[in-house]
Amino acid sequence: RTLAEGAMVTRMAPSPTGFVHLGNLYVAFANERLAHQSGGVFFLRIEDTDDKREVEGAAEAVISSLSHFGLSFDEGVTPVGEAGGYGPYYQSLRGGIYQCFVKKLVSEGKAYPCFLTAEELERVRERQEAAKRTPGVYGEWAAHRHLSLEEVKARITSGEPYVVRFNADMTDAGLMDGVRVADAIRGELAMPPNPLDVVILKPNGLPTYHFAHVVDDHLMRTTHVMRGEEWLSSLPVHVALFRALGWEAPTYCHTTVLMKKEGEAKRKLSKRKDPELSLDYYRREGYHPAAVREYLLTILNSNFEEWRMENPGSPAEDFPFTLGKMSNSGILFDLDKLGDVSKECLLRIPAAELAGFLTEWARYAKPEAAVLLERDAGYLEKILDIGRSGEKPRKDLAYGAQILEFISYFYDELFRIEDDWPENVPTADVPALLSAYLEGYCHGDGQAEWFGRIRSMASAMGYAEKPKDFKKSPELYKGHVGDVSAVIRIALTGRRSSPDLWEIQQILGEERVRRRVEAAAARQG
User: Fold this and answer.
1) Which residue out of 103, 153, 261, 271 is catalytically annotated?
2) What is the CA radius of gyration of the chain?
3) Residue 429 CA from chain centroid, whole number
4) Nearest C-alpha neighbor of 260 from the set 299, 227, 311, 231
């Protein structure tokens, strides 16, 4: 690669288990921002050396899920193969590469074949527990660390299964006094040295994560490795491996966990308990990708909201994302806050673009509704544009499922009467009011003229023209003009609450307005 000084090379390196979750997106988005705003490279590597956990099609699911949220890779695994000059990007295809470096370590006495069986390892563990010693293979428990070359050859030739272990007795690696690592999120970390002879090559010839990521991140020129805090305990092993191979380690960035509030307490988001952990939740609910990215920035960098207030019209990609502003303690993921961010974000999206998004979402999650939305794109655009202009634009819609429910009354196939008639309107008055409304209805009326007709009709049928008049002298009236308007609103939308009724009628069209009012009068009559 020919990159400018300071350009970062980051990666996403998931195991192909088939479950793409919010934490994956959180880390991937941070990696993408670091790479692209520095003029660097963001690549996808699939860590598929554990065939027991592999799920068919999982790599494609990762690419599809992240692509939906606007994240794309510059190199690595793609739906049609691999792109980039640092492959293969599937670890299962890199076996020969890993074995070359394992041989190097073995030849230098920094790794060795270990023939301990599962039964022998269990006996070692039992003795360590009895002696209150740290469990694992190390020191006196590393029975095969010093086998002669002849004995190793004989055991391998006889077909005895083995693993290759890293020799942790690395006094020349400068680790005896501990490990000091500058973490880009957590600052300088002081950790005890790694005491264990960890496995770096499994019996099937494939590496463990410890060894594979060290080799790959060096050869693929990764500058920054972002991963969860659960890997902190393994950091001394990884630092030792980099030093043993004579390589400089990338900058490590250990993120914190995503949490949710449960009563007064907080807990880690759970795959079993929390559907919102799955990325598919946001696709099925219909959150706009831009809104999800915007919310992630609010929890990735503590100063994003301040920046947004100062730059209300700027794309989120203009925000200068930094590692130094990332939290190193549990992050609260709040669906309500996501909703608030989404409402603001949707308001910045033109109605035509929003209509396209809603239709695309419906094809994915509500195919029966997609048929209706696709029927007339211009009609849908007008619906979505209601109340979005002016000094106080409406901000009450956050995601696709909510929007579809809210606008459903515009479509005859989804229209239904949901609310009861106003209490101040006698049941017998409903058909009379609706009939009178139709008699005086003129679709070409302006808003003021249209409402003037309603006031006159209300007065003629015993309702106050103004709510304050009814409040002042309730004994003189059946109700007020608001009650009459509510009858018309329910007839047209099925609800007592909706955006501006005159504007709704203009979108519905005269024929549909008359048909619905007539149907409501007939049902009540």
Assistant:
1) 271
2) 33
3) 52
4) 299
